[in-house]
Amino acid sequence: MVPLPSICIPTTAGTSSEVTNNIVFTDPTTRFKFGLSGPNCAATRALVDPEMTLTLPKGMTAATGMDALTHAIESVTSKGAYDLTRSLALDAVRLIGEWLPVAVSDGQNRVARERMMMACLEVGIGFNQSGLTIVHSMSHPVSGWCGTAHGVANAVLLPHVMAYNCSYDVEGFARVAEALGVETRGMSRLAAAEASVEKVRELNRMVGIPEGLAACNVKESDFPNLVADAVKSAGIGRNPRPTSAADIEEIYRQAM
Ligand SMILES: [Fe+2]
In the chain, fewer beta carbons within 10 Å around the N or the C end? Predict the structure, then answer.
């Protein structure tokens, strides 16, 4: 069956839905948030114009921008990554690291809005092929069960998952650190990879993301539901580090 034509016009620089084969649903009865993928889920045309984001409020700019950064870092380190998708994702990391704080502090800055939209476009084209890892596996249940905005849940979980994954893709995370502006000369590659985690924490602070999940309506009593849904995600299989349900629970705990 051929779907009706669709024209997508993004009004945030975040999801990349206009250039991916992915759509996301939340079942209101089970609170299960899940993605579907396939050519019939893609837009027929995308009209990508940064003008559409000029009036986006600070909080939405920060949350959606950190969603895009999460896509980019997950795309670099996904088991499905290859040279082309990594190049796109690393350029997106570079653009977001440089321009998201500007877009948040000065929403009318057209250069910042254009750079953010370009980053979003690049990484969408990339992660559509590489797939994502466990940040999204873990953030979807947080949104489904606790109502946390998607980008905020990703942003809070991102550094914790990076710390967990770091030693399993040292080169990938070291390149993320470099794309975020860390001077890595003289550092071991592992130290460079680890520096990417602190750099993302710093970026979260700069754009006003809450410190932990406890500030996002998550309680420890939610963990069984969160873990049960997270392990159903395809991102587990693409994560650079083998991940068990117990590992997922421990990352949630650390992110509180
Ligand atoms: Fe996302």
Answer: N
